[in-house]
């Protein structure tokens, strides 16, 4: 009997992981849309609290933190291009508040978006986009950011 219970628990765990991957994939696809934890949870028929706990357990950060990291990654790419203002980039990646965007950007990247734009626009232009994306990827969970001196 115990073997059947273990198999059922493992089956449920795999179903839960599949739901969490769907949520993560939706965030990756729709990062610029107005997403919140409640909407993400409704999409997989879970409560917001349960989704947040399960997501953090599986991926090491909350759904909101993951969403903001995706937005900041995209913002970094747009800022490297240098043809949009910081405000335009903020709204292009789905942030509704310039203050929240700037604060989160500074936390993840280690400098304000305007400073990043000024430093990275020229330096990253010389490297292929795929390399620039990897080298300038934001650091999650408030780890120490890598300096941009390697771009110059």
Structural write-up:
The protein has helices at 2-30, 37-43, 48-59, 63-81, 86-92, 98-109, 113-123, 129-135. It starts with a helix and ends in a 17-residue tail after the last helix. It has 152 residues and is mostly helical. It is built from eight helices and no strands. The longest helix is centred in the N-terminal third of the chain and has 29 residues, at 2-30. α1 (2-30) packs parallel to α4, α2 crosses α3 and α4 (63-81) packs across α7.
List the helices and strands and how they pair.
Blueprint: H1 2-30, H2 37-43, H3 48-59, H4 63-81, H5 86-92, H6 98-109, H7 113-123, H8 129-135
Helix pairs in contact: 1-4, 2-3, 4-7
Q: What is the count of helical runs?
A: 8
User: Rounded to an integer, what's the Rg over CA atoms?
Assistant: 18 Å
User: Taking all residues together, what is the mean pLDDT?
Assistant: 84
Give the N-to-C terminal Cα separation: 64 Å
Number of E-state strands? 0
Strand content: under 5%
Low-confidence stretches: 141-145
Name the helix and strand elements from N-terminus to C-terminus, one letter apiece: HHHHHHHH
Q: What proportion of the residues is helical, as a percent range?
A: 55-70%
Major pleated sheet: none
Q: What shape does the CA trace take? A: elongated
The helix-and-strand class reads mainly alpha
